[in-house]
Amino acid sequence: MATAAASRRTVRINGCVAAAQAAKYADVDVITAYPIRPYTATMMALAQMVANGELDAEYIVADSEHSQLSMAHGASSSGARVFTGSSGVGVQFAYELYSPISGSRMPVQMMIADRTLDPPGDFGSEHTDALSTRDMGWLMGWSCDAQEAFDNHLLAFRIGEDPRVLLPQMVCQDGFFVSHITADVDLPDTGQVKEFLPPYKHPYPLDPRHPVSHGPQIMPEQGPPLQLERARAMEGSVPVIEQAHNEFAQIFGRKYDPWLEEFMTDGADVVFFLQGGHGVTARYAIRHMRERGAKVGMVRMKTIRPYPTDRINEVLSRFKVVGVIETNMSLGCVSSGGVLYSEVCGALYESATRPLVLSFMAGMGGEAIVLKEFYWMTQKMLDVQKRGGIEKRTHWVGFEE
Amino acid sequence: MSTKGTHIPDWLKVPFAGITPGPSQEKGQDLFPTGNWRSIRPVYRDKMPPCNNACGTNEKIQGYLDLVKRGKYLDAYALIKEDMPFPSVTGRVCYHPCEQACNRGQYDEAISIRAVERFLGDLGLALPRDVVQAGPPNGKKVAVVGSGPAGHSAAYQLARMGYAVTILEKSPRAGGLNRGGIPDWVLPQDVLDREVDRLKELGVTIKTNTEVGKDVSWDDLERNYDACVLAVGLTEPNKVKADGEDKPGVVHGLPFLRDIGMGTSKVKVGARVAVIGGGNTAIDCAREAFRQGALEVTMITVESNPQEMPAVPEDLHDMLEEGVELLHGRAMTAVLGNGTVEALELRPARFSGAINASPITIDKNAPAQRFAVDNVIVAVGQHASLDWLPAKFKTERNTIKVDHFGRLGDSKFFAAGDIVQLGTGQPLMVVNAVGDGKRVAFNVDKVLRGEALRPRMLATDVIVDLNRMNMTYFPHFDRVKQDTLNPASRRKTQDEVILAFTEEQAVEEANRCFSCGTCNACDNCYLVCPEPCIIRYDRSNGLYKILVDYCKGCRVCIEECPTGCLEGVPELDFDTGVVRMETAFAITQGLHGRQADELKALPQRAAKEID
Amino acid sequence: MATIDIERQMLPMLGSPNTGARFYNPDLPEGEPFVPGHRTCAGCGPSIQYRMTSKAAGDNTILVGPTGCMYVANSSYLCTPYNVPWAHTQIGSAGSFTAGVAAAYEAMIRKGKWKGKFPNIICEAGDGSVSDIGLASVSGALYRNHDCLIICYDNEQYANTGIQASSRTPYGGMTTFSPPGPKVPEAKTLFPKDLGRMMAAGHPHCYVATASVGYPIDLMNKVRKALNHRGAAFLLMYTPCQKGFVYETPRSIDLGRLVVECGMFPMWEWDPAKREYDYSFRPQNMRGVADYLKLQGRFGHLHAAHIATLQKFANGQWRMMGVEIPQALMDAENPDAHVGMAAAEQAAAIAHTV
Fold it and tell me: Which of A395, B45, B178, B491 is the most buried (most CB within 10 A)?
């Protein structure tokens, strides 16, 4: 059976299915699946596609997430385009594989539908699962809705497989909010995808006709150049990311800034800084508050790895106060809150006009951030602006006056 | 961009993502010559197999057995013919010192080498043309006196070297002891005839009825030939010096057998025959007596038990199977009878010193025993007839005096065989005579070409300890036995008693050979090496090479070598080929850079052949 | 895009040239995918096995190397002895990485992205990897029946990390995680997992067999049989480790024979078509376990009672294979039949002082 052709149309699907559709359009060769909520729906959709003959791929039900990623590693090393995914503790079960996969320059793609880490058992979304792997060398970014998810998956293949990059990608989306809420998604026709996404060709795959060995044991003195090369690969992905987004816009007609979405930031004094699906509710909240005269906006980060340091430095320096919404935990960290705060501050450190930065623990446990909470947070930011200084680095929304 | 402005120096260059190109099978993984790890290096050193060593003419027995294993019978036959002119003879008559020495005897049973040699010899005789040819003529003439084993062997080797050889044989038929000392039911006449014919096919001239000292003189020999090999043997029978030994009805062993062999025997054997003597000739005489019509044959020996007899045990066994009686510890002191033999006088006797080599002490006080017989055959050894030999070349033992090259002083005369070996401690055997004749022929050649004679090199490492080999690879298998004629029917004919191996039997028996100490390309070392650093050049009985750049000296190959031809030599004993390193890690600077370049070029390189 | 039928290799068995008493090895394949210059110990048993396996498999092969000696020692330092493609993977990923490679080739050949006969895909994993941390991944690969071969080179310990106990370390086997001492005179109290039969029983559609470096041609033929089998195959191979077992280096092959002859490592094949075990392999001799144990320093601390216990274990293995046990081996279950190993006395002496 060969992968079926498809034509342009709009469908109402959730983020999981959108990811599955992207994998199908990309004509992946190997899919490794292991059930864990909420990302499982992606794999369920793919299983049906394969069974129907819509997608010609090897669909493997793995025995664990660790095996999932190992299989993906093996398949990608052999020259196959691979798709896998997980959520929550599943993402962590596979942890051992993230550095080897990125270090061996294999462009595996992983769909992550976020889920809170244990304890407690909770199906709701927090970003800690994927964020805990942020140092491992994968390209990483959050989508805020199903369309973005679909588009980001295709972009990730294009960027990750580019011979100048060759890095694996985690395309993340909030569990439930994006993964299970349906939305209208424009699906392209196969020709457009063929134009945008060339076939995957690794320069040194495991091919009996060109024998190579992947990953020999080294001496310490060989470590530095290899690590430097990994750093170069990650940094070298920046121009490719920009080029890919331009090509995407030309072929599919949807233009995205690869790094940030600015929403109603013109004239804003205070801005929310966040990533992922809460950006959608944030837009509503900000519109409401703008109508009431609050000079508030939002900067949504679309790519966290590679971190757009200079861009964030430049953009956030235009504001007086930045309120980082952390839908993740980094216990014992600088802000006693989440991950994003430290990186924002690090990006802003050299700025002559850096804003005041505080963070909000909101949406924890997979709860929606409701309008009232946006108002409360905005008020906090305005207070900080008035005061000229932060009260404390992290506020627990819903638990403070 | 933290990596802006960074530069990886050449000596730290590494391949993309640490991916390394596969090494070639020819060069190995040459970043690490692990050869510098070892303290002991395995080397292939063939040892002398005990069979080759024990053989009087050093036939390459292990070699030809190995060829038989592989079905290469013609090659095996050719290999024997390098050292032995008449394998179909020795395949029947030899006392097989090789089998006595065979290491398999310590394990289960010795290889039946003689029978395999017979199989090959007969195969060779059946060829329309022999595999051996005379060498290009060199214009020189050599005389060989005597056509027995030593003379035949010397003539054979000399002809192969291109000499014009003439054999002078005093008997009416050629063959010496092969003809006249060995009964037909051991060595049929026609087999010997064909071997002699092979000799003639090499261009050797044989003049029978030509006796030196009668028909040809010493001076004739000196004048007419460039060199001369005296292989006259011990043709005169010893006497026991008993009264009446010259009566009619008393014959001596060698003439008895010789006349039968030449077809000129006039002896009529009566019903009861006694044979005096305990050696092989005596046994042959006893068994021959039956075939000549005797009804009772008794062998009378001074030796007090069968183990002391100098006879080959299997021949003794066959003799007893045929019904010969044994009487030990007695000497014949007189032959009694009026004009004919009626009885023997026997007295208890023993050797005064070493068995078989010292004078006999007869107990004169003990009563004499009267033993009724019709014929007596006295077989107590032979001596030479050397009246024609200049006195300066005679020893006190009445043998020919030679140096250890077999040469008579500085003359162009050489001697070989029993005539020089008697009393030297070497058993008098056909195969020893053949070896002697062969070595003398090579010495003749050296002298005639003006080259220096070199003393013979003896093997220093004869492998006799099974612990030096690996017996795991040799399960126990019984020796294949040759069929024999039914003992009861043997005396009715002159047919061969011991029957030939079939091809299957020859191969089955050859298969049991351990190939002691000699590489026979079994590939075991090649197979078990962990590196692997043993490569194969050439599969036929050679050669493996150990890549000393890589060998770590684990010595698994030595342990698993079935034949023991591998041994470990301390590394420091070698002054070349030792891999030394300057640092703990033998990475030549820049080798990883080389890998990086190789890797970059890999996708463009021709695809490896994988089908 | 039409799909393409996948052509698979069929490798011939190595026949014996021997009839009767003759000993020669059969015509061995010329190719040498595993080349010298790797940093395994001299006499390394797994290395011997690796070389034989590569030779039997040939050039259209991909090797997978989970962390272990056959990864670290072979590829130190940033070099490789493999003339065929090889990839390192995590110690627990033996079955899964291999499955990924197999699945990739199924897809790539079928979809026309790679042309050729389906490569041999062989995973070389140690017993630590297969029996412990990677057990699930190996079982998964076998259950899913990917066309691959998973070899467990069993040196009965975690060797590369400096000799630690694994679930394959025998009772009485000293390692740095199971040292002998007054509290634990036998050093290791647990008996090993029956890894081979676990794999056969749990995945009866697979070709499963045991092999030993003591029987090289048998090993190579089992490799070929496994590769010819359409689907997953598992081979458990006894490969002695000089460093961990502490024996004279030249004895690697010899130990491979002795372990089978004393019954501690049964040789058998599981037939996936007939769904039954073939226990017909008989070594040349049957010996007591003491003949095997006494050659290895890792058993140097055993008292007579411990040796007797091991004999009981070995007799159990013979019984499982349906082999009649000679009286001498039955008698050897009695501690009185044995003399303790040399170090046992020293250990006992220390115990009295504690």
Answer: B178
User: Cα–Cα distance between C47 and C34 in angstroms, integer?
Assistant: 9
Q: What is the DSSP letter of A163?
A: T
- Pick among A104, A228, A241 to test the B interface (most B CBs inside 10 A): A228
A201 in reach of chain B (CB within 8 A): no
Nearest to A234 by CA among A182, A148, A289, A168: A168
Closest of B504, B515, B539 to residue B71, by C-alpha: B504
pLDDT at position A6 is 86
Distances (CA, A) of C309 to C170, C244, C306, C338: 11, 21, 5, 11
Query: Which member of A104, A203, A225 has the closest CB to residue B8?
Result: A225
CA atoms of B280 and B383, how far apart (whole Å): 16
Sign of CA dihedral C37, C41, C44, C49: negative
The SS3 call for residue B414 is strand
Q: How confident is the model at residue B540 (pLDDT cuts 50, 70, 90)?
A: very low
> Residues of C with CB below 8 A from A97's CB?
90, 93
User: Is residue B132 over pLDDT 60?
Assistant: yes
Q: Which helix (H) or strand (E) holds B434?
A: helix B430-448
CB contact under 8 A, B556 and C48: yes
> Cβ of B583 under 8 Å from any chain A Cβ?
no
Sequence-distant (6+) residues with CB within 8 A of B566 are B42, B43, B44, B45, B525, B557, B558
Interatomic CA distance for residues C37 and B549, integer angstroms: 8
| ipTM, interface predicted TM-score of the complex | 0.94
**Minimal C-alpha gap between B151 and chain C (Å):** 38
> b/e per residue, B407-417, with b = 16+ CB within 10 A?
bbeeebbbbbb
* Selected residues 106-145 of chain C with any CB under 8 Å from a CB in chain A: 106-108, 110-111, 113-114, 116, 119, 136-137, 139-140, 143-144
Mean pLDDT of chain C, nearest integer = 95
**Inter-chain CB proximity A80 and C99 less than 8 Å:** no
**Distance from C-alpha of A364 to C-alpha of B309, rounded to nearest angstrom:** 109
Q: What are the φ/ψ torsions at residue B107 (nearest 5 degrees)?
A: -105, -55
Residues of B within 8 A of C119 (CB-CB) are: 610
pLDDT level of residue B355 (50, 70, 90 thresholds): confident
Strands B236-237 and B382-383: antiparallel
Cα(C329)–Cα(C288) distance, integer angstroms: 6
**Residue A302: how many CB atoms within 10 A of its CB?**
22
The 10 Å Cβ neighbour count of residue B418 is 28
Which residues does chain C have within 8 Å of residue A82's beta carbon, measured at their own beta carbons?
Answer: 100, 104
**Residue C294 burial by Cβ neighbours in a 10 Å radius (0-12, 13-18, 19+):** middle
- Chain B hits for C20, CB-CB cut-off 8 Å, are 477, 507-508, 511-512
Shortest CA gap A179–chain C (Å): 27
**pLDDT tens-digit profile of C68-124?**
999 999 998 888 999 999 999 999 999 999 999 999 999 999 999 999 999 999 999
Cβ within 8 Å, pair A78-C108: yes
- Digit-coded pLDDT (tens) for B463-500: 899 999 999 999 999 999 999 999 888 888 889 999 99
Shortest alpha-carbon distance between residue C219 and chain A (Å): 23
pLDDT digits (tens, 9 = 90+) for B361-405: 888 888 899 999 999 999 998 999 999 999 999 998 899 999 989
| Gyration radius of chain A over CA positions | 21
According to DSSP, residue C324 is labeled: P
Helices (H) and strands (E) in chain A, counts: 13, 15
B361 forms beta bridges with: B350
